[in-house]
Amino acid sequence: MRQLMSGVYSLLPLGYRVRSKVITIIREELNAIGGQELLLPALHPREIWEQTGRAESMADILFTLSDLRGGDAILGPTHEEIFATVATELTSYKQLPQLWYQIQTKFRDEARPKSGLLRVREFTMKDSYSFDVDDAGLDQQFDRHFAAYTRIFERLGVTAVAVEASSGAMGGSDSIEFIVPSPAGEDDIAHCPACGYAANVERASSTIPSFHDEPGPDQPERFPTPGVHTIVDLEEFEGGASAERQIKTLVYVLDGEPTLVLLRGDHELHEQKLQDGTGAIDIRPGQPDEIRELLGADAGSLGAVGVTGPRILADLQLADRSNMVTGANLDDHHLRGVDVGRDIAVTEWLDLRTVAAGEGCPQCGEPLEVFRGIEAGHIFKLGTKFSKALGATVLNADGVPVPLVMGSYGIGVERNMAAAVEMNHDDTGIIWPVSIAPYEVVITAVKVDDEATMTVANRLYDDLNEAGIDVLIDDRNERPGVKFNDAELIGIPYRVTVGPRGLASDIVELADRCTGEKSELQIEAAAQELVRIVTRAR
Q1: What predicted TM-score, i.e. pTM, was given to this entire model?
Q2: Sign of the C-alpha dihedral, residues 131, 133, 134, 140?
Q3: Which residues pair with 373 in a beta bridge?
Q4: Residues 6 or more apart from 291 whose CB is under 8 A from it?
C-alpha cells in the first residue's frame, strides 16, 4: 500500500489480492447465514440523516458537500439510514426475517488518522442489517452474526475476543465488539482471566474495596490551601487528604449545558460513559472562563457543596461517602468534612469512572487485566431507532403496523488486513495466514540463466497453477539473498528454492515462513506434496 494523503491509501497488487481474499471469506460466511448482497449509494441526501438526528450527533466525522443545485449531501460513514429506507419496501411480517449486506466504501473525517490502515478516512466495510418483527427475531439474527463473525476471524487467522461495548452514536440496546489484542490498537479492554468476562473500558465495570469513613463535623469546614491545584498537591499538603478521600470536580458542557461531574480523587472519568449515561450529543470540557463564571474559582479549587442550578452528576463510588475533602469554589481553599448525601445536591448517579487493572471482576471478583486491542468487528442490536425515524413498518400477525426491529453488523476489510499483520509478523516481515496470503507459494529460481533451473521452476509453477494454488515465480536476475529477503518481507507462506545444487540430487528446498522449518522435496513429487500442504493449511 502507499499513502496518498492523511488517512487515505492506495492498495498495490499484493495488497489488493489480500483484500479480495478477506472479502471472499466474509461474503461466504454472510451468505451461509442467509445474507443477500446489495449495493447502496455512498452519496446520501442530508435530510435522511437529519431525520434520525445523526447529521448532528456524528457531525464531527461526516464528509459533507453541496451539489450544483445547492443540495446538501453526505458521503456515507455507515448505512443504517439508507438500509432502513430500502426496508420501507417491506409491508408484512410474512416477508421477515430479512438479512441484507453490502461490501462498500465508507468515508469518515477522522481528526487524527494514524496507524496505517487501522484509522483512516476512506475504507471498505462489510455492513449487514437484519430486519425482524420483534426482539426475539433480532436476538436470533444477532446470535447468527456472532457465530459467523467467530468463523470469519478464525479463517482470517486472527484471534478476536468478544467484548461488551458501548453502542455510541449507533444507539440500541446491546453491542459486542470483536477485539484483536495488539499494542497497535486504540481500544482498552478489561478482561478477567478467571471467568472470561470482557468489556471495552467504555462499558466495563469492576468491584473495588469499600471505605469506612470516620465521623466528620456537622458541616463542611473551609481551610486555606495555597498553591494546591491538583489531587496530588492536596495529598502532599499538610492537613490535606489521600486521593481516595477527595472529591474530584470537573466541569463539562453537555449539549450547551454546563454540568458538574464528580468522581473520587483517584478515579479517572471515561467520557464515553458520560456520553452514554446522559445521552448528550455534544460533549466537551468547560473552558477556564466558563468554569470561573459558573463556580467563581479556577480549576483546582472547585467543588459542588451548596451549588444549585447546574446538573450535578456523581460517580457511583461516591455514594454514601462522608468526611471527604473537595474544593471550596474559592481559589486556594478547600472544604473538609464533606458528607456527599448531606452537602451535595446530586442530580443523577452514574457509572462514570474508568476501570483499572487489578480491580475485581464484576462477575467473579478475581483481578481484572487491561489490554490494548484492535476493533476488528462490531455488532449492534439497534431496535427500532432507525425504522421509527424513517417510517419502516410492517403489518404484524394482528394486522397492526409495527416498526421493523433492526440489527447492524460491521467488519472493516482493510482493518482486518492490518490486524492480521499485527498478529502475524517477525523482524523480517509479514507472516500471512495461508487463507489470505497474496500468494500461497513463491518459487525462487536461484540462477535464472541456468536452463535446468528454469525448466524445473516453470514446470512446478504450471503444475501448482493447474492445481489451484496461488503461486508466484521469482525469476528476477537478483542475488538469492535479495530474493529470500523479499519473500520473507511480503510474507508468502511457503518458499520453494530451485537451484543447481538441489537439482544435482533431484530435490528442491521448501521453507515454511511461519515456523522457519526447511525440508527437501523430491522434484517429481514436489507439486503433489505442496498441494497437500497448502490445502491442509487453508
Answers
A1: 0.89
A2: negative
A3: 181, 187
A4: 251, 297, 298, 299, 302
Element (H, E) at 335: strand 333-338
| Cα within 13 Å of Cα(162), Cβ side | 16
Tens digits of pLDDT across the chain (538 residues): 999 999 999 999 999 999 999 999 999 999 999 999 999 999 999 999 999 999 998 999 999 999 999 899 999 999 999 999 999 999 999 999 999 999 999 999 998 898 899 999 999 999 999 999 999 999 999 999 999 999 999 999 999 999 998 766 555 568 999 999 999 998 999 999 999 999 999 999 999 998 889 999 999 999 999 999 999 999 999 989 999 999 999 999 999 999 999 999 999 999 999 999 999 988 999 999 999 999 999 999 999 999 999 999 999 999 999 999 999 999 999 999 999 999 999 999 999 999 999 999 999 999 999 999 999 999 999 999 999 999 999 999 999 999 999 999 999 999 999 999 999 999 999 999 999 999 999 999 999 999 999 999 999 999 999 999 999 999 999 999 999 999 999 999 999 999 999 999 999 999 999 999 999 999 999 999 999 999 999 8
- What is the end-to-end Cα distance of the chain in Å, rounded? 24
Q: Distance (Å, rounded) from C-alpha 516 to C-alpha 518?
A: 7
- Virtual CA dihedral for 479, 485, 491, 494, nearest 10 degrees? 60
Classify residue 27 as left (phi > 0), alpha (psi -120 to 50) or beta: alpha
Contact between 419 and 116 under an 8 Å Cβ cutoff? The reply is no
185 vs 7, 376, 416, 418, 535, CA distance in Å? 16, 10, 12, 10, 32
Question: ∠ CA(304), CA(306), CA(307), 5° rounding?
Answer: 55
Residue 515, Cβ neighbours under 10 Å: how many?
A: 8
Q: Which residues contact 352 (CB under 8 A, 6 or more apart)?
A: 261, 263, 269, 270, 273, 274, 277, 313, 314, 315, 316
Q: How far apart are CA 453 and CA 137, in angstroms?
A: 62
HSE, side-chain direction, 13 A CA sphere, residue 175: 26
For the purposes of burial, counting CB atoms within 10 Å of the CB of 6, is it exposed (0-12), middle (13-18) or buried (19 or more)?
exposed
| SS3 labels along 432-498 | CCCCCCCCCEEEEECCCCCHHHHHHHHHHHHHHHHCCCCEEEECCCCCHHHHHHHHHHHCCCEEEEE
| Domains of the chain listed by start with CATH number | 2-157+382-422 (3.30.930.10), 221-350 (3.90.960.10), 430-537 (3.40.50.800)
Contacts of 321 (CB under 8 A, 6+ apart): 211, 213, 247, 264, 339, 340
Task: Say how far apart CA 245 and CA 264 lie, in whole Å.
Answer: 7
